[in-house]
Amino acid sequence: MDEDAGCTHQPHSPLVRCDYLPADFVQCDEPRDLYGNETEKERLQGFGCTKFGGDKFSEVETTRVMCRVLEGLECFGNRNFTKDAVPCIKYTGHYFPTTLLYSVLLGFLGVDRFALGHTGNAVGKLLTLGGLGVWWIVDIVLLISGVLRPQDDSNWMPYY
Questions:
Q1: Which distant-in-sequence residues (6+ apart) come within 8 Å of 65 by Cβ?
Q2: What distances in angstroms separate CA 19 from CA 16, 65, 82, 113, one per listed residue?
Q3: Residue 53: left if φ>0, alpha if ψ -120 to 50, beta else—which one?
Q4: pLDDT digits (tens, 9 = 90+) for 110-143
Q5: Which segments of 37-160 does DSSP mark as H helices, in order?
C-alpha cells in the first residue's frame, strides 16, 4: 500500500512505513567505491564513498544507498527507497585478535603479513626469519599501535 494508490498512512494501523523497517527486512545495495573522486560523488548526488573506513566515528564517511523491502512483507509506502547516512565501511574477514596471535606466535615466519595480504613483505620476513627477530618485534608494535592494517584498507571485523 502506498500514497500513490490514494491511501494515507494511519499511524495506529499495523502497517509500518517501508523506510522505517529494520535492516533485517530490507535489502540495501553496497556502498559504491568512487576511489577518491569527489566530482563523481557530487554528480551522483551523494551516492558512493570516496574513502572507506576510519579509526574514529568522526573519520568515517557516510553515503546514500538504494534499499528494497524483501518479498512477502507488507508495509506502507514505496518498497524501493533511499537510505541516508550509511557508513562507508568494508569488512573482508580480518580479525585483530587472530592477527595479533599470528604475529606473536608465528610472526618470525611472516604469517601475520601473509594473513593481512602483504605478500611481498611476508616473503621477505619468511626468508630472513623475521629480520633475525627485529622485524618480528617491530611488526607486533606496529600492529598494536594501529599502523599495520589489512592491505585492502578494510576495517577489522567486529568480534562481538
A1: 28, 29, 30, 31, 47, 82, 83, 86
A2: 8, 12, 8, 43
A3: left
A4: 999 999 999 999 999 999 999 899 999 999 999 9
A5: 38-43, 96-106, 111-116, 119-127, 129-132, 134-145
Q: How many helices (H) and strands (E) does the chain have?
A: 6, 3
State the Cα–Cα distance between residues 79 and 64, nearest whole angstrom.
16
Q: Which residue has the cell 598494536?
A: 144
Check: CB of residue 107 under 8 Å from CB of residue 143. Answer: no
User: What does the pLDDT look like over 26-81, one tens digit per residue?
Assistant: 999 999 999 889 899 889 988 999 988 887 889 899 999 999 999 999 988 899 99
Show the cell assigned to 45. Answer: 548526488
Cβ atoms 72, 56 nearer than 8 A:
no
Separation of alpha carbons 54 and 51, rounded Å: 9
Amino acid sitting at position 34: L
